[in-house]
Amino acid sequence: MSPIAVLFGGALILVAVTGALLSVNPAALARILRYALPVALAGFGVTMTLIGRGGLGIPLIAFSLAMFARARGASRATRQPGGQSYVRSAALEMELDLDTGEMNGLVLAGSFEGQELDALDESDLMLLHGELVGDPESLGLLEAYLDRRTPDWRAGPDMDEGAGLGAAPGPGAMTQKEAYEILGLAPGADEAEIREAHRRLMKRMHPDAGGSTFLAGRINEAKAVLLSRHD
Q1: What is the rounded CA–CA span in Å between residue 82 and residue 30?
Q2: Can you say whether residue 184 is alpha, beta or left, with left for phi > 0 and alpha for psi between -120 and 50 degrees?
Q3: Contact 150, 120 (CB under 8 A)
Q4: pTM for the full predicted model
Q5: How many Å apart are CA 15 and CA 18, to the nearest integer?
């Protein structure tokens, strides 16, 4: 095979790959490029070696292998095992399954400390609601859970008109650790992964889709905290 034919074939492959990449959404494109660049460099290195330019081709192949290994390491570092989103307050730790949309929580303080919300009946949940009146952040989390488990819980005779309308976030700035947990990411996620995680969560939790105003606010805050690192 002549060098010109090899180079022409490589150019055609490059054009085809470029066209395919342009049709992919930005978050997926970022993940693909992590591997596409080292693969492209390896292909170019092999081509150079085949046409007798081993002095250039072999170092390119070695460099591309190092890039590929680094990309795989970065991918493992930024993937959150289990696909879970976590939001923690003084009295509750809530968990949202990113695949199913199922929500559960662990009570961290009060009469029901150590119990999961799924294990409590409706009367116990209403008692817990009363205990959390002085903790707006925990109350907002519990109301988000109640909205998904028992949508008509506000109709109870003991509930006031403002119940379930969402509570303001508690004092203090959200930390990066909290933001990563809320978005279901591990430290080191890049901008595309942050935006994709935010988009995925908002599809589940946006108020217009039957989600929670409180949790939607926390998700938006988590996105802002993490994206501030990329400004």
Answers
A1: 22
A2: left
A3: no
A4: 0.54
A5: 5
Both tokens of residue 95? 């968990």
Task: Tell me the one-letter amino acid at 156.
Answer: G
pLDDT tens sequence across 7-66 = 555 555 655 555 555 555 454 555 566 666 777 767 776 777 777 776 776 776 776 677
Q: Collect all residues with Cβ–Cβ distance below 8 Å to 137 and sequence separation of at least 6.
A: 89, 90, 167, 169, 170
Per the CB < 8 A criterion, the answer to whether 145 and 192 are in contact is no
List alpha helices for the chain, DSSP H.
3-22, 26-50, 54-78, 122-131, 136-149, 176-183, 191-205, 213-227
| 110-144 per-position pLDDT tens digit | 999 999 999 999 999 999 999 999 999 899 999 98
The CA dihedral of 135, 126, 120, 96, to the nearest 10 degrees, is -50
The residue assigned the tokens 């660049």 is 37
Q: What is the dihedral of CA 101, 106, 107, 113, to 10 degrees?
A: 150
3-class DSSP assignment, residue 101 = coil
Residue 131 tokens read as: 């205990």
Closest Cα to residue 21, out of 8, 39, 45, 4? 39
Cβ 145 vs Cβ 117: under 8 Å: yes
Name residue, tokens 């509750």. Answer: 92
